[in-house]
Amino acid sequence: MSAKSILEALRAVARECQAAAPSFSAEQAVQGLALADEIRAVFLPPTPASQAADALPTLLQLLPMELLSVLLSQLDTRDLARLAATCRSLWRDAPTPPPRPWGLVETELRRRAEARGLAIGSSLPEGAASWVPYLVASDLRDALRREALFAVCGEYSIFVDSEGRLLTCGRERRGELHLGHAVDPEADPAGPRYVGPPTLVPSVSGRRFVSVATCRFGYCLALSAEGEVYSWGNGRYGGLGHGDEGDREVPTRIESLSRIERIATGGNAMSTAIDENGRLYTWGCAFFAGDHFRTTALGYAVDPETENQLNPKRVDALAHDRVVGVALGCDYTLAVIDAGSVFSFGYSRGMLGHGSSKRELLPRQIQALAQTGRRFVAVAAGDRHALALTEAGEVYGWREWPLMEDPSERVPHRIVELVGEQVKLLYAAGMSSCAVTESGELYSWGYFSDNINHLGHGVGAVQRTPKRVERLSGVQVATVAMCPTHTLVADGDGVVWGFGRRCALGLNDEPSGPEVVVEEPVRIRALRVRARKSPPPVVRLSG
Known about the structure:
Elements: H1 3-20, H2 26-43, H3 58-61, H4 65-73, H5 77-86, H6 88-91, H7 104-115, H8 131-145, E1 150-153, E2 156-160, E3 166-172, E4 193-200, E5 209-215, E6 219-224, E7 229-233, E8 248-253, E9 260-266, E10 270-275, E11 280-285, E12 308-314, E13 323-328, E14 332-337, E15 342-346, E16 360-365, H9 367-370, E17 376-381, E18 385-390, E19 395-399, E20 413-414, E21 423-429, E22 432-437, E23 442-446, E24 463-468, E25 477-482, E26 486-491, E27 495-501, E28 517-528
Antiparallel strand pairs: 1-2, 2-3, 3-4, 5-6, 6-7, 7-8, 9-10, 10-11, 11-12, 13-14, 14-15, 15-16, 17-18, 18-19, 19-20, 21-22, 22-23, 23-24, 25-26, 26-27, 27-28
């Protein structure tokens, strides 16, 4: 093969790599850079032994190690991986048994893992080839599952505080077990139970949690730092995932699930989990009222002799794809895979994004989103509307018709009111939505419920288009949880604000006191959640 043909082949491969770059995982990117280094070495003269290849680049070498550590702490995970791949001295993944030297990048990644409450051992997990790619992938996955630091529904809220502990507050009525606290046998079973301010759930006080979810059908999920899923509350329809329909007073581990990265609840009493390999599991309600065709939103057919899926079951139709996000609406499900495609399944009513009312038993790709040429990274689902977020921060949405006037609303279209804003997070609940931009501004829109201010714009009429929440001016919003009765907001330091139904925020002084609505965001001072961005290490410089 001639040198000219070899160069042409390399150019073709380079063009293909450039086109496919957005779909590479962090570990694949590191491997690709390593291969590029090998190719570069073919065309460069060998480095003399006197010029040690493991020396730091000249500019970095001039920095003291303390300052270099601070510099690395300010990089995001992907940039940290790229730097390690281009500088082996920063990587230094020595193959020697412990104790072994850590490179600066590995040291920084281990520090971030420790700050998140994750224990990183001295032995590589099975299937991992090298420490830096493993720690990079772990950090990126954890960024996804840390999204739900609190969850809200009706008259209660659930939190993961800065130490990874599980707390709840609010009110539960007869037959409800949302709060996760054992019921006092001497309490009036017919009366409501109140917990507030945010109070530690004692039965799991020894566990560290990273994410929570709640369903309006009366149950909750919590994800531990070890990837275990706990559930409690109303067991009807099998949403708890324990193989029965019994209630659970306190959080109980779902034994059939392990190494889980994300959890979600919603829809028609359904639950979902995504494991570290991107496999999607669903369980819970397997029918719709009056629907004899039994088209479910679970992503697979169910036994006609059963009404509900009582144990988590894998969605085999997506077995060849890595699922990175899922959202449950009212009787339908959305899933996004790492390649950037969005799938939908369940009972339609125009909510599946295919432009029709046809039901879909198995996941079907939404072609209207595929035709945009964009790579999608997240989805959100409300009762009668859905949203999808692109890698570039663009928002697409669609909604049910004839509830809305235009039947074209059944097909995803870009939300023009958010053009020019780079959105990083999307949320939908009931008949309302919100979005958080890269600059930390919160936009919300939708319907009010019982004249309760959960959108942040004050009591008023329907907010049909995205509007910035001016009352949170100056707050760099990092995460949000909303429902038709109240909303929680946290900044990057873990400080929490809330507005809406007062008892659900844990702000009522007396359980028997009058119901009060908080019209403007107030800080919940008894609580701080885990910050979404780890702080830089504390360093002391001499001289």
